Amino acid sequence: MTNPLPTKTMPSNFIRAVIEKNIESGRFTEKKWNGKPGNRSHHNKGLIDKAKIRTRFPPEPNGYLHIGHAKSIFLNFGLAKDYNGACHLRFDDTNPEKENEEFVKGIIDNIKWLGFDWNFNNDSNLYYASDYFELMYSAAESLIHSGQAYVDKQTAEQIKNSRGTLTTPGKDSPWRENQPAENLKLFKEMKSGKHEDGTMVLRAKINMASPNMNLRDPAIYRIKHAKHHKTESQWCIYPMYTFAHPIEDALESITHSICTLEFEDQRPFYEWLLKQLLKNDLLNEPLPKQYEFARLNLTYVVLSKRRLIELVEKNLVDGWDDPRMPTLIGAKRRGYTPEGFKLFTERIGVSKADSWIDYSTLEDCMREVLNESSNRRVAVLDPLKLVINNLPEEFEEDCLAPNHPKKPELGKRTIKLTKELWIEKADFMEEPEKKYFRLFPGNQVRLRYGYVVTCTGCEKDKDGNIIKVLCEYLPNTKSGTPGSDSIKVKGNIHWISTKYALDAEVSLYDRLFKSEHPGVKSKNYLDDINPESVKKTKIKLEENLVNIKPSDQYQFERHGYFICDLESTSNNLKINRTVTLRDAWK
Ligand code: ATP
Ligand code: MG
C-alpha cells in the first residue's frame, strides 16, 4: 500500500513553495510565542511557537466581506491548516470613522460560514489592531528617539507638493532636522489633544530622494479627533495603515504576511520599519515577511468595498445581503455555498499576475457542487394548465420520482397525478418551430415520471391567449412499469397537479452589471447596472415542498438551483434562483 498524500486545501502555488522552503531551512524553529501578541520582551518570556507558520486575514471592519476576500480567506486559513500553523483573524481597525461592530460580527460569521476559525493550541487568535495602539505609540516614540521620525507642521498640501515626482527628488521639510527631544515633545502634544486635525503629522525620516515614493518620509501618525468603535475617545492620533500593518504582523509573530499586489511598492517600507524596530529592541527575529499575490477580479461584478458601500447607500440594491451583491452574505442568501467557493479558489489558483476571472467560472463551480448536494423537486415557473381529457374528474395516482438521480440511496418521493396539471407555457406551441419536440397538436410527450400523452389542442380566451392545453394519456406507458417505453417520444416535460400545487414567489436573479468590466468603458460603473437583474414572478411548487424553510436548497428540474429565502414563511413562500442549469450568457 502506498502512503496517502497529505490532504491539502489548495493545489501548489508560489507561496506554498516559499513556506516549504522556510520550514525546511528551519527559519522559524527558534521563534517564540507567548500566548498572545506582544513585543520582544513579551514573547521572550514565552516558549518555542508550536505553530509552524502564522498567517493572518486582516479585514478592515468598514463593510461586509466580498468574494475577493474569500480568495484571501481560503489562502490564509488554508495555508495555516495545511502546514500545522495558525491563521489570525485581525480586525484592522485603525480608521476610526468608518468602522463598526455590525461589520465585525458580519465578518466573523462569514469566515465561520466558509469553514474556518482562528483557534490554535488553546489560543483564540482573534485580534484588533486597536489593541496595539499603545505599542504602536511606543514604536513611534522609539523611532523618534533613534532619529528616524519627526513631527512635520507643514500642511497636507505642502507635504504633497514637496514629495517630488518619479523623476525628480522631493524637498526636505523645514522640520526634518528637528532634534528628537523637540519631536518627542510635539508628538506628546499631538497625543494629548492639544492640536487640531491636519495641523501636524509624524513622518518617518528615510530618504526624500528615494526612487520609491513610499520611502520619501511617509506619514506614520496623524491627528484625528474621532471616536473609535473600541477605544472610544482614548486616542486622537491614529497610525497610518502602512505603519500599523507591519507592526501588527510583528507583534502577532506572523511569519507570512500575504497581501495583494497593490502593496508591492510598500514592501521596502515594511522591511525598513521592522528592521529599525528590531534594532531598537522592540521586536524579535525572525521578522515577518510580506508576499504579494494577484487580487481576484471577477467580470460583471465590482469587488471594492467602497463601491459596494455606494450601492447600498444609494439603495441601488436591497442592502448588503441582497442576493445580487457579490458580498458573502449576499452570495449565501443567493444559495452559493462554501464548498462552491472552495472549488472556485482551487480552480483559479494563486498567482502573481493580475487577470480577470470570468463570472461563469464561479457559477460553474456552484453548479457542480449543487448538482451533487441538491435534492430534486419540480417547480413550474410560468404556469399554463394542461387537461388530460380521458381521465375522470376525481382521478389521482402516485408517481415516483427520485430525490437524486445519481444517489438512489436518497430514495424517491411521490407526486400526485391528477386530471388537471400545471406545465410551463414554453412547453406548448400551437404551431411548433423546427426541432420543437414538446407539446403541439398531434405530438406525444412524456409527463416526467408519469404517462405519455398525446396533445389534442388548446383553448383560448377572447383575446386569443392560450389558457388551456388539452391532451389524452396512453394507458400502459407509465414510467417504471413494464412496457412503459414501448412508445418512444422525444419530449419529456415536468408538471404539477393543480389540486396539490403550492404557490410561491420566485426571484430570478441575473447579473447585477450588464458590462463585463463595470465602469471601464462607461467611466462610471453605476451606468453599467443591469436594469433587469431581478425578475419576481408567481410560481407553482410540487406538494412535497410544503415544509420548505429558509436556506433549504433544491434543484428544480430543468430549471436550475434554488434556495428558500430568509424571509420566506409557510404562507408566503419565497424562493431565490441561485443559478440556472446551463450558462445562458455564453
Ligand atoms: P476593498 O478594496 O474591497 O476595500 P480591502 O483590501 O480594502 O478591499 P480589507 O478589509 O482591507 O479590504 O481586506 C482584507 C484582506 O482581503 C486584505 O488582505 C486584502 O488583501 C484581501 N482582499 C481584498 N480584496 C481582495 C480581492 N479582490 N482578492 C483577493 N484578496 C482581496
Ligand atoms: Mg483595505
Structural description of this entry:
With 586 residues, the protein is α/β, with parallel strands linked by helices. It has 13 helices and 31 strands. The chain binds adenosine-5'-triphosphate and magnesium ion. Adenosine-5'-triphosphate (ATP) is lined by residues 58-60, 68-69, 71-72, 259-260, 295-296, 303-306.
What's the rounded overall pLDDT mean? 95
Main beta-sheet annotation: 7 strands, mixed
Bound molecules: adenosine-5'-triphosphate, magnesium ion
What is the terminal-to-terminal distance?
Answer: 45 Å
Assign an overall shape: elongated
How much is the radius of gyration in Å?
31 Å
Label this structure with key terms:
alpha/beta; 586 residues; disordered N terminus; seven-stranded mixed β-sheet; binds magnesium ion; binds adenosine-5'-triphosphate; 13 helices
Please give the structural blueprint.
Layout: H1 14-25, E1 32-33, H2 40-44, E2 47-48, E3 54-57, H3 67-82, E4 86-91, H4 101-113, E5 119-120, E6 123-124, E7 126-128, H5 133-145, E8 149-152, H6 156-161, H7 180-192, E9 201-204, E10 219-223, E11 237-239, H8 241-251, E12 256-260, H9 267-279, E13 289-293, E14 297-298, H10 305-313, H11 328-334, H12 338-348, E15 356-357, H13 359-373, E16 375-377, E17 379-380, E18 383-388, E19 396-402, E20 412-418, E21 420-424, E22 444-447, E23 452-460, E24 466-473, E25 491-493, E26 496-497, E27 502-509, E28 534-541, E29 553-556, E30 560-564, E31 574-580
Parallel strand pairs: 3-4, 4-7, 12-13, 14-15, 16-29, 18-24, 22-25, 27-31
Antiparallel strand pairs: 1-2, 5-6, 8-9, 9-10, 10-11, 17-28, 18-21, 19-20, 21-26, 22-23, 23-24, 27-28, 29-30, 30-31
Helix pairs in contact: 8-9, 12-13
Adenosine-5'-triphosphate binds at residues 58-60, 68-69, 71-72, 259-260, 295-296, 303-306.
